[in-house]
Predict the 3D structure of the following.
Amino acid sequence: MLIQAIYIFIAYVVDRVVGDPKFLLHPVVMIGRCISQLEKWIRKFVSRESSLKIAGLLFPVIIVGGSYVVVWALLYGARLVHDWLAIALEIWLISTTIAVKGLGDAGMEVYQHLKTGNLQAARRSLGMIVGRDTEKLDESEISRGAVETVAENIVDAIISPLFFALIGGAPLAMAYRAVNTLDSMVGYKNEKYLNLGWASARLDDVANYIPARLTAFLLLFASLMKRLSIQNAWRMLIRDAHLHPSPNSGITESMIAGGLGIQLGGTNYYNGVVSHRAKMGEATRRIEADDIIKTVQIMNLTSFVFCLLLLVLTYVLHYV
């Protein structure tokens, strides 16, 4: 497990330095294409809503199981060529399952546009990372959208894939990434996906359950290091986390809101349809662009501390 923790730390550094080069076809993009194709096949041959619920089980079986098998086979083949090739491939594949640099860059892009007063560009940049309508948002609402997205994805895009990489290497980390991609594509509780996507949504909730709660303690440490109110972060966690539709995302969002002394949630619009999200935290002040920087810094610190803890704990367990 110590060796795996070393691979994870190197993969984390690779992601922080390189990110996701646009000239390479990202594994998550390939997973997304497979999901879209499978959905087309299912809808072509299954028409009854009751049958769609059963057919929804095909997504976890084929997409998640297939992602695991493909990555395992790639590593097995690389190992036959040379052990170092397999190690390099393992590290690179793990790095593609996390998005520390990508998430931070996306948040900072919104921030830079806000600081230059270019609201139109900020709305466009925010629209690339959120599903809500952004065309009419003011600076505070744009900042809220960026803060919420970064906070929510601390678990989904960083801690969870690293957690599963420690347990099962790149194959299990990629399987988790498939779970999360499924949830983002078909895990909606609307008329189109209520039956077809139920299994994917439930599996995502289960997969993130433990990592989300580990992240709560990491966020307390990161908040302490950034001189934020850990008492308020903990209080908002206890008071507001359960109000979020997700049993996991509410943890990070409520703690970020408490630590920063802001209120997240509220009214969003999706394709012109209003959606009222439970509010978390207390509105002691308006959310501003600088809150995006603070949230990105918390995300970076949380991810680094987690990787460092993995190294220290596995080292102690290995030699004690």
In short: Residues 241 and 250 are 4 Å apart (CA to CA). DSSP finds twelve helices and two strands in the chain. The first strand starts at residue 263 and ends at 270. The chain has a mean pLDDT of 93.
